[in-house]
Specification:
Elements: E1 17-19, E2 28-32, H1 38-50, E3 55-58, H2 64-76, E4 79-83, E5 86-90, H3 92-99, E6 104-109, H4 114-125, E7 130-135, H5 146-154, E8 158-164, E9 167-175, E10 183-185, H6 191-201, E11 208-211, H7 219-226, E12 231-234, E13 237-240, E14 254-257, H8 262-274, E15 279-286, H9 293-300, E16 304-313, E17 316-324, E18 332-333, H10 338-341, H11 345-353, E19 359-361, H12 374-384, E20 388-392, E21 395-399, H13 405-408, E22 415-417, H14 422-435, E23 439-442
Helix pairs in contact: 1-2, 1-4, 1-7, 4-6, 5-6, 8-11, 8-14, 11-12, 11-14
The structure holds shikimate-3-phosphate (S3P).
Shikimate-3-phosphate is lined by residues 39, 115, 190-192, 195, 217, 339, 342-343.
């Protein structure tokens, strides 16, 4: 079957939309909300079919990335039904397909979502009789996929990627086949790649061991354990054993609750810290320690933040986060923290803009291959507002002048292209709000990929 290449360059001029900051004199005793965790939402959907669980999911992330995952599993034959603010997922029709020898060809569009693309690539490549053509949007089609294809090939997978100027990317043609277990040392700490391997390994003939250079978020492992899969972590190694797919005949749905997104909560944390006189709380947030490392960094900067455990869900803690405005000071973070702070560097850089002294975030190489080259774009954003931000090798250095003049000077007509990147848009809006400056943004609609209600809460 030929690989159909989608490679449209959009060269239409971009439209800037101007945002006037809300005048928060202070935010007192206000509750902020965040949508369900995006990482967990993807995994709950994908693992419901990998483990053949009928689920009734509440608080699923409503953004476009998770919608892409939902559509992909629906294409496969899984029943998804919106039911009283929950999503009912029934993999039974798909299970029936797996039982007969028919072959299936589907097309999936992963839009902007790297997590869906990489984890599903792992899953699809482990299903014999299945052929999948996978594509993504302009941003995703430029992100590296060789890192996923390499370990899967060692397991015996058959994946064809598109060669874009010597970089292997989407679109991809994935022909599912029988896989064998593998022992694999990940060259980078990546939860997406680790998860893609672990999910593929469920259908392999022998166990699989993945070793990471640093530990990355472990939602996949926690949910797999919660669903009854034999999986263990020893130091930097994760070992997963093959899983016997069977489905309960009883028509019963297991209720699961997706906790609030810790990375989305980071935007409200920084807003609360930088608007003088504020006191806010963010409720029901995922308390996974890998996801809350940014709170330790903000506390080290002098941020008055407390975290209280309020429950557990899907094998992880659920927390409330209280934030009071604080005078911040610069901080230094090491490379070994980078994988746990990757999604928060844009908003942590905004916090650094409001801090006294110098901040150095070290070892941000991976930040270049996110939804955009975030390293370059953070520097551009801060410097547009008069910051002094530099990239030294893979480190980001943010300096603030002693008299803080850049924060008081009105800079007119600031235009920032957020290049398909939701986290850059949200960080830019928080920065502009903290400075009480107008900002004109392109691509702010990409906020919908993770946090559709973000702008509504600015009132
Ligand atoms: C994610 C892992 C991280 C993170 C991304 C979500 C996940 O990416 O940046 O937003 O859900 O597994 P990497 O695995 O590329 O580090």
């Amino acid at each position: 079957m030929p690989l159909i290449i989608y490679d449209c360059e959009f060269i239409m001029p971009k439209n800037y939309v101007c945002y006037k900051p809300v005048n928060f004199s202070h935010i007192s005793n206000r509750e902020f909300f965040v949508p369900g965790c995006k990482s967990i939402s993807h995994r709950v959907l994908i693992l419901s079919l990998a483990c053949m669980k009928r689920l009734c999911i509440s608080n699923l992330n409503p953004g476009e990335d998770v919608l892409a995952t939902r559509k992909a599993i629906e294409n496969l034959g899984v029943d998804c039904l919106d039911y009283e603010n929950n999503l009912r997922v029934d993999p039974k029709p798909y299970f029936d397909f797996l039982q007969n020898e028919d072959s299936k060809f589907i097309k999936v569009d992963m839009a902007n979502s790297g997590t869906s693309a990489r984890i599903l690539m792992g899953y699809f490549s482990s299903i014999s009789n299945l052929t999948v053509q996978m594509r993504g949007d302009q941003s995703l089609s430029r992100r590296p996929m060789k890192r996923m294809e390499l370990p899967l090939n060692l397991m015996g997978a058959d994946i064809e990627l598109y060669d874009r100027n010597n970089k292997l990317c989407l679109p991809a043609l994935i022909k599912g086949c029988e896989l064998k277990g593998v022992t694999y040392d990940l060259p980078m700490a990546s939860a997406q790649v680790k998860s893609g391997i672990l999910v593929a390994a469920l259908n392999a003939k022998t166990p699989t061991t993945v070793t990471e250079p640093y530990l990355s978020r472990d939602h996949t492992e926690n949910i797999l354990k919660y669903f009854g899969v034999h999986i263990q972590r020893i130091g930097l190694q994760t070992i997963v054993y093959p899983y016997q797919q069977k489905i309960c005949d009883e028509d019963r749905y297991e209720q699961v609750y997706v906790p609030g997104d810790a990375s989305s909560a980071a935007f409200w944390c920084v807003l609360g810290l930088i608007i003088p006189g504020s006191k806010i709380v963010i409720k029901n947030v995922n308390g996974n320690l890998f996801r809350l490392k940014y709170i330790g960094v903000l506390q080290k900067m002098g941020g008055n933040i407390t975290v209280s455990k309020v429950g557990t869900t899907l094998g992880e803690d659920l927390v409330d986060i209280q934030v009071e405005s604080s005078l911040l000071k610069g901080v230094e973070t090491d490379s070994d923290m980078a994988s746990s702070l990757m999604d928060e560097y844009p908003i942590l850089s905004v916090a650094a803009f409001f801090a006294s002294g110098t901040t150095i975030f070290k070892g941000l190489k991976e930040l270049r291959v996110k939804e955009s080259d975030r390293l370059t774009k953070i520097k551009e954003l801060l410097n547009l507002f008069g910051g002094q931000c530099q990239i030294k090798n893979d480190d980001l250095v943010i300096q603030v002048t002693k008299d803080n003049t850049s924060k008081n000077k009105v800079i007119n007509n600031v235009k920032f292209d957020a290049v398909h990147d939701h986290r850059l848009s949200m960080s830019a809006l928080i920065l502009a709000t903290g400075l009480q400056q107008e900002i004109c943004l392109t691509d702010a609609e990409y906020i919908n990929t993770s946090f559709p209600s973000f702008l509504e809460q600015f009132s």
